[in-house]
Amino acid sequence: MNTNYQKYTEKLVKITDVNKAIAILGWDQEINMPEGGAAIRAQQIATLSGIAHELFTDHSMGDLLNELTNDPSLTPEQANNVAHSKQEFDKKTHLPASFVQKLSHSTSEGFQAWLAARKKNDFAVFAPFLEKMVNLKRQQANLLGFEKQPYNALLDEFEPNLQVAQLEVLFADVRQKISGLLAKIAAKPVPKNDFMFRFYAHQKQWDFGISLLKQIGYDFTYGRQDISTHPFTTDLGMQDVRVTTRINEHNFHEMTWSTLHEGGHGLYEQGLLPQNYGLPSGAYLSLSMHEAQSRLYENNVGRSKAFWQYNFPILQKIFPDNLQKISAEQFYAAANIVQPGFIRTSADEISYHFHIMIRYEIEKALIEGNLAVKDVPDIWNSLYKKYLNLTVKNDLEGCLQDVHWSHGLFGYFPTYSLGSFYAAQIFRAAEKAMPQLATEIQQGSLLGLNKWLRENIYQYGKKYSIDELCKKITGEELNLSAFIDYAEKKYTDLYNL
How does pLDDT run across 3-28, given as a tens digit for each residue? Predict the structure, then answer.
């Protein structure tokens, strides 16, 4: 192997090791850490974040990347890795190590404040920490540089080259095309669904969730599941991928679809190639593509009729008192009720995108200085009334429900909607490539789909841009038509539209 490329690989593996150490500390912070450990944990994560940043932005790395960028002996894959690293290097050298440490420390503090605010159901507890985070993210945007709007710099962190201008067009389409479908459904009777809110014992739900993860192909040899306040996925490398869920004994929706959602994330991480650990070719393509995997398993698979034709009889045996008088058709209808609610993670496939649009509008306004942090609850509540005709009763079901802002993840939310739209397009391509797919799902076999996704998405890492990969898989770049076709067909049948 090229000597310089070998040095580059060794450096990236070392940096990745440090970042994965940060990840395990972050995972532990949300799963096991005692409340009193918050301050020292914030310090530890900040220290390691600074070390990782310094290692990556060291002048020797810059010199090495410059040499490799002009090295004609590299293979196409090696050159692609170097190009990605050079782009990342150019971004990160704009951020001083002191700023990275400060941001990391504020993230840990903010998360603890968010938890405390949720316990008290009071946004005011979190507000000072959010104010600090917003100021830091504005500073980050200025340090990175941006075209037209500071929010663009933050979007780029999660979806390279994504711009506000594109999102404005996308969400205009959402308002026009999806709101019409939502209105048609709202005029129809709501299917019976009271049985979803009966008592479902914690342990039985947990065991069923584990069986669903195994069914979709999540490998517990290289993974585990735990309980957290807000479900998430952490990867420590392809051979240690951890997911979490949450369980509400009086709402069967929460565990089931959060488990499938995080399971989709986990499958993507487990499907990356171990030999590429540390390299761009061993990392996920973008957050939108990552969310495409989670939304695909949560909705295109997990809310499909075929999926419940197999799983409902199993569920009936686990919870006979709740479900013995319920049919598979009734359960399928209840799993797909379109009824706007307050909680994003429990939202149906149609109203979900208005939840995302609300968060997008708020965080963009915060970053651009058009909204004060103290006014977040009021604007949140007014937008829920405007878009979903809901009156938010308290901060817990309102602006305190998501962990993202405490972690400084401004620019992340739009990838959820993008992910859903990519998922519909990708799943349609999978159905064309695998005419037997519906039958396999009906038989409880998801391994064929997992294999197809590994071959067509996971193994490539960052080899392609998201537009290139989408076109390679589906024959066209992202558009709303696949999602609209999927949604209209499904809900026309369910609601007799």
Answer: 999 999 999 999 999 999 999 999 99
Tokens of 290: 């990552």
What is the rounded CA–CA span in Å between residue 67 and residue 413?
A: 37
Q: Pick from 407, 305, 296, 413: which is nearest to 353 by CA? A: 413
Distance, in Å, from the CA atom of 159 to the CA atom of 169, rounded to the nearest integer, reads 16
Q: What angle do CA 263, 317, 307 make, to 5 degrees?
A: 40
Q: Tokens 């996925």 appear where?
A: 233
CB 228 within 8 A of CB 246: yes
Q: Of 427, 465, 466, 470, which is closest to residue 449 (Cα–Cα)?
A: 427
DSSP letter at 150 equals H
Model pLDDT for residues 86-130, shown as the tens digit of each residue: 999 998 899 888 898 899 889 989 999 999 999 999 999 999 999
Residue keyed to tokens 């307050």: 342
Token pair recorded at residue 111: 């998360």
Catalytic residue positions, numbered: 262
Say if residues 456 and 473 touch (Cβ distance below 8 Å). Answer: yes
C-alpha–C-alpha distance, residues 14 and 20, integer Å: 10
DSSP of 426-464, one letter per residue? HHHHHHHH-TTHHHHHHTT--HHHHHHHHHHTGGGTTSS
Taking a C-beta distance cutoff of 8 angstroms, is the pair 433, 452 a contact? yes
Q: What is the mean pLDDT of the chain?
A: 94
Helix, strand, or coil here: 474? Answer: helix
